[in-house]
What does this fold into?
Amino acid sequence: MKNTSENYQIDSLDRSILNTLMNDARTAYSEIAKTLRVSPATIHVRVEKMRKAGIIAGTELKVNAKQLGYDVCCFIGITLRHAGDYPKAIAKLEALEEVIEAYYTTGPYNVFIKIMTPSINDLQHVLINRIQSIEEVQSTETLISLQQPIQRQIKP
It folds into this structure.
C-alpha cells in the first residue's frame, strides 16, 4: 500500500506500530519496541517517516460526548440551491460548533453533516435557526441516531 505524496510503502512492522498506537496513542516507543523486538530508535524513525508520508495525521484525544451532555446525535442531508453554492455553504456550516463532520456527497444530497446537541429542543433550534436559515440551503432531511453500535478506525 503506497502513499503517493512520499511513495512510502508500509510493511508489517509499520502496521504493527500503527495498530499499537491506534489502540493507545500514549504507548511509549520503548514499550512498542520491546513488544516488537526492535530498538526504540527504530520505532521513532518509523513513526517519523509515516508522519512525513502523511500516513499518521496526528494524535487526538477522544471525548465521550454523552458524558459532556451531548445526548442527541443526528445526520442531516442538505440539498443546496445551486451546485456552485458549495464553498459558501461549507464555510457557514463550519462556523457552527454543533457540526462535527461534513461530507460532499453524490446522491440525493450535496452535503451530509453530523451534528451533536444536548437535546431535541437544541437540535430543533440549530436546524431551523442556524442550518435552514443559510441562504444556500434549499432543503434538509434529518436522521436521528438512536445508538452507535460500531465505531472504529480503518486498519492499516
User: Anything to note?
Assistant: Strands lie at 2-3, 8-9, 72-80, 99-104, 111-117, 137-145. The longest strand covers residues 72-80.
